[in-house]
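Anyone? Bumping this.
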Amino acid sequence: MKIVKRTVTIVLCLLLIPVTAVTTAAMKQRFADGPNRVFSGGPLQSGELYTGSEPDWSFVSEVPTIEMQLLEPPRSRRIWTAEFNGKLYVWSGYMGTPVGRIWKRWPVQAERDGRAVIRIDGKRYERRLVRIKSGDILDGLSAAIRDKYPSQTTRTAVEAGEVWVFEAAPRD
Amino acid sequence: MKYFYRMIAVALIATVVAVAFIPGVGDLVEENFQRYLGRAAR
């Protein structure tokens, strides 16, 4: 019995090392101007703030990821994006899994307060995230997402709540 | 066990210092975490 207890203690102590590494890396990123990979970053501070007419978002087809920050809470993350019919969209997968819901809290936060800032190629845009739960637009948008990324996103998945899709609309 | 606990304490402090201050270490940790998280979410 004593050897089992000792083994468990040793394993737990050794596990503390990667847990500490991940926690430290995540905390460090919170103080950064923007995200890195999966850990949330701080507010997007650098980069020119875009003003003017609605941009032609077709250029995002060449952009693999964008940085997006919600105003509340003021944290940023790196996400996929797609343009469809002249509008900009972001989405979050894995929302139907427990790990996904813990990992990705921004969609729930964005549904509460959609005010956001996105940064693409160093330029910041003020947007408002509006969730799209259903509709014919999801057919075309899903196809656009699958064309751009190795994604399984379908209209059915969005309507089932497994993928949360938001239009990054202009902020009025 | 006393020496083991001391070793773990030193390893934890070294981990925090390395991740916080050595360029690239935090990114390496995040890259591996992303890999495991992605696998777990599927």
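Late reply, but here is one note on the structure posted above: The helical segments of chain A are 2-30, 98-103, 106-112, 137-148, 155-159.
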